Amino acid sequence: AQKVTQAQTEISVVEKEDVTLDCVYETRDTTYYLFWYKQPPSGELVFLIRRNSFDEQNEISGRYSWNFQKSTSSFNFTITASQVVDSAVYFCALSEPYNAGNNRKLIWGLGTSLAVNP
Amino acid sequence: GAGVSQSPRYKVAKRGQDVALRCDPISGHVSLFWYQQALGQGPEFLTYFQNEAQLDKSGLPSDRFFAERPEGSVSTLKIQRTQQEDSAVYLCASSLEQANDEQYFGPGTRLTVT
């Protein structure tokens, strides 16, 4: 069965620290997609990144970077030089591909609540 | 451009009442999803539409839950005879077309059943 585990329930850091949010997934499929979403206190989920299972290149976007390792089934997210505005709940999600006959639903982790303190 | 909108943002219902939650997806988005998010939890899938066709309703928790998207744009999630355990945030998301496109979420409707 598909499953996403975010072992860190809450993380608290001081501004400018680097922080890594862990995501470990389980799937029986060889083709799948992984996502990260941010949910700030306002409640609206914001898309951050989508990664195809065939693309193991790490990605950097400003202060955000993602490390995808199929060997350990992990898709970790690092925020460099964290800021107070980064405070939010971050969700990792797994999606099966349409061609597998599924209906594109996302399997979500429980989220990691990040607090960045000034 | 306009994002996904949901109304109402907050709804308080007495147990046993029926409620209707509305979602306006991004114009042109083919796929529409409903999720339920309990406090401190991740979103849980409820149902999925491709245009007006409801392709998956496996996540609906009971036959009190019903969703429709009759013209392939606006969608309504209806909950009949609400129960306290229905209290949650109901999220709507839309995506452009392709499988596994990123989903764009609305702000959610917070339902409280008293």
Write the layout of secondary structure elements.
The complex is a heterodimer of chains A (118) and B (114).
Chain A: E1 3-5, E2 10-14, E3 19-21, E4 24-26, E5 33-39, E6 46-52, E7 59-61, E8 64-69, E9 74-79, E10 88-95, E11 106-108, E12 112-117
Chain B: E1 5-7, E2 10-13, E3 19-24, E4 31-37, E5 44-50, E6 53-56, E7 65-68, E8 75-79, E9 88-95, E10 104-105, E11 109-113
Parallel strand pairs in B: 2-11
Antiparallel strand pairs in B: 1-3, 3-8, 4-5, 4-9, 5-6, 7-8, 9-10, 9-11
Low-confidence stretches of chain B: none
Largest β-sheet summary of chain B: 7 strands, mixed
Q: Compute the number of strand runs of chain B.
A: 11
What is the typical, i.e. mean, pLDDT of chain A?
90
The helical percent of chain A reads: under 10%
What radius of gyration of chain B results from the CA coordinates?
A: 13 Å
Tell me the helix content of chain B.
Answer: under 10%
Q: Beta-strand percentage of chain A?
A: over 45%
Count of separate DSSP helical elements of chain A: 0
Whole-Å distance between the termini of chain B?
37 Å
Question: Quick one: overall form of chain B?
Answer: globular
User: In terms of structural class, how would the helical and strand content of chain A be classed?
Assistant: mainly beta
Query: Quaternary status of these chains?
Result: heterodimer
Fraction of residues in β-strands of chain B = over 45%
Sheet of most strands of chain A: 6 strands, mixed
Order of helices and strands of chain B: EEEEEEEEEEE
Please report the total strand number of chain A as a whole number: 12
Biggest chain contact: A-B, 24 and 28 residues
Rg measurement of chain A, Å? 14 Å
